[in-house]
Write a structure and sequence with these properties.
The protein is of the alpha+beta class. The protein has three domains: about 100 residues, Immunoglobulin-like, CATH 2.60.40; about 100 residues, Immunoglobulin-like, CATH 2.60.40; about 55 residues, Dockerin domain (Type 1 dockerin domain, Orthogonal Bundle). The strands form seven sheets. The chain has a four-stranded mixed sheet with strand order 2-11-10-9, with no helix packed on it. A four-stranded mixed sheet has the order 13-20-19-18, with no helix packed on it. β3 and β4 form a beta hairpin. It is elongated, with a radius of gyration of 33 Å.
Length: about 290
Amino acid sequence: MKNKRFFAAVSLLLSLIMVFGCFSASAAAVTPTVKVKPARTTFYQGIDWMYTSGTTITTIGNLDISGMVITYGDREINYQTSMFGANMYAKAPTGGWKAGVNQAKVYCTDFSSSSEYVTVSLTLATVESIKIRKTPDKTILVEGEDWKRSVINDVEMTKYDITGAQLDVTYSDSAVKTVSYPENSRVGWSVPDGVDSIKPGDATLNLTFCGKSAPFTVSFVSGSSFAAGDVSLDNKITSYDALLILRYSTGSASLSDLQKSLADVTSDKLINSSDALIILQYIVGIRSSVK
């Protein structure tokens, strides 16, 4: 009888030790910590994220928190990106992303509710103002190519290629980022508020980005406004016009139909170095005209 009691007591003691040991191991295993913070914790409106409507935010792809290391039990989990994506992901806090500081959840194993995670402060910076660094490549807009006249002689234009436009964007954290079109398709253009119609001649349009705008000047002109040889459409004949012809002939530049007609000063329906030579001769006074 004594032996039975002894073995029962030992069994109970071993059971308690096992339960306590499992509890301790479990408690230790579910305490992930951040060993190394992400290399980047601020993400920028129009570059990394956008509002979808009102104050609702959608991120553009996964927020890249490269460099982050989590200690999880006896393991270290390194955040890294590859052609297959990231092996950890910063999920939005309860209620979704918001402008400003977010306490994001970075999961250690998977995205299930039972998976352990750490919280990391990630900031979504908003656009405060924009400034034009470079206007679009095309600011002289030609009738019949880029716009047409309405019945009341106004400019009618629905499309405008703003390739080459660059903006310096100031953010809520005082950072300044340069964005370009078409690399960033969120750079756009608009007619200024309160303008109901635009007349041919010089006019003001806006470059836009994330609800902010900055004005610049364009010219709505007719093809008859330009002399032969004025390939750059600046009402001057200079060496730059000859350079444009040479670049076009080598395939390194494109010309509109109007520019092609002005470039063909030899009237041989070819645009090549012969046209460029005539323009250069005119500039230095060897010729009295380009035609």
